[in-house]
Amino acid sequence: MIEALAATTFLALALMAFAANTVGLTRNERSANNTSVAHALAQQRLEQLRSMQLGAAQTNPGLYNDGTLKADGTATGPFTRTYQISANNNPTFGLRTVTVTVSWRDPRQHTTRLSAFIRCATIPC
After folding, report:
1. Which of 4, 7, 40, 49 has a CA between 20 and 30 Å from the CA of residue 121?
2. What residue numbers bound the domain in which 18 lies?
3. DSSP run (H or E) holding 16
4. CA 119 – CA 4 distance, rounded (Å)
């Protein structure tokens, strides 16, 4: 009888450990998915800015806010995307640096940043 009780207790503890592990794995998978979405949203904005015509108004130096976005880039989601375009000729003549920041909360705050260069319409800008 004692052996059966010990075996049942051991089995119950093992099942509880597996359940706790499953919850942790699910949380980690969700966090990895959100990180992947944030990188995609940042990459999307960088590619849009880099594909614009030289001298387009949207590539003027400044800080811009796209607001909150869903994973597909539509409005009112958990991701906040901002981007900053550096002053003219930074880091060198004819270039501007674009830094895109995407942040989200799940259950703690996360942020990812990507940077690239865009050309000015004239050299120097």
Report:
1. 40
2. 2-119
3. helix 2-50
4. 75
Phi, psi of 58, rounded to the nearest 5 degrees = -70, -10
What is the residue whose two structure tokens read 């901002």? 82
Quote the DSSP letter at residue 53.
Answer: P
CA distances for 102 relative to 20, 22, 78, angstroms: 30, 28, 10
Q: What is the number of structural domains in the chain?
A: 1
CATH code of 39's domain: 3.30.1300.30
Predicted TM-score (pTM) of the model is: 0.79
Does residue 57 lie within any of the structural domains? yes
